[in-house]
Structure formats: structure tokens, C-alpha cells
Write a structure and sequence with these properties.
Layout: E1 2-4, E2 10-13, E3 22-28, E4 36-39, E5 47-54, E6 63-67, E7 75-78, E8 86-91, E9 96-103, E10 109-110
Parallel strand pairs: 1-3, 2-4, 5-9
Antiparallel strand pairs: 3-8, 4-7, 5-6, 7-10, 8-9
Length: about 110
């Protein structure tokens, strides 16, 4: 799914948990300072996994990793992600496994 955040903050709510559901979200935008929020449909359908995070302004080009706690977080907030961001979620019928690459000056927020 290509997500264009040019028009403003964008919230995606995943469907009810079902074995095998898989989505990959790729970011496109022409305007800055727009957030992408990816939420599971219920607090019990939490995330397990995380994202490789690259800050495009880091002159040392260091890579970080940001992970959910795996037990309670079901909301992911990407603060002004850049083109090149790609997030994949896969459902096992109960939880959503998440992985991908975040290009952003700010670390993602899990809740």
C-alpha cells in the first residue's frame, strides 16, 4: 500500500486480526511535517518486532533499532517519515509482527 502523507497526518487502522494478513506500507510525500500512524484494531492485538531507523541528517549515517515492547503496544507513530520508509505487518491471528525501515529524523513512538 502506498501512503501519501502530503495532505496531512495519516492514520491507518489495520483490520481485525486474522491469520496470514500481511500489509506493506511504503511512504510517498511532497510535503514535510506530516505523521503516519499505524494502529492495530484493538489493544489486545499488539505489535511484536520493530523497525530499523535511519536519520537522514546524521552525518555518521548510523542506524538504530526501535522495537515495541511485544506485550502491550498496538499503536505506531512515525513523526514526519521520509521517502524510503517501508513498514510490513504480518498477523498470526492474535498479534501483528512488524518490521521495516524508517527514514526519519525522529525515532518512532510506540503506545
Amino acid at each position: 500500500v502506498v501512503v501519501d502523507t502530503s495532505g496531512g497526518n495519516t492514520t491507518i487502522t489495520l483490520p481485525a486480526a486474522l491469520v496470514g494478513l500481511t500489509f506493506t506500507f511504503m511512504l510517498w510525500k511532497t510535503a514535510a511535517a506530516k505523521n503516519l500512524l499505524i494502529n492495530s484494531p484493538a489493544a489486545a492485538a499488539f505489535y511484536k518486532g520493530g523497525l530499523s531507523w535511519h536519520d537522514p541528517d546524521d552525518v555518521n549515517a548510523q542506524v538504530s533499532f526501535s522495537a515495541s515492547d511485544g506485550t502491550s503496544e498496538y499503536q505506531l507513530d512515525l513523526d514526519d517519515p521520509d521517502i524510503g520508509t517501508s513498514v510490513t505487518v504480518v498477523c498470526d491471528g492474535t498479534v501483528w509482527y512488524i518490521s521495516g525501515t524508517l527514514v526519519d529524523e525522529t525515532a518512532p513512538t510506540w503506545a
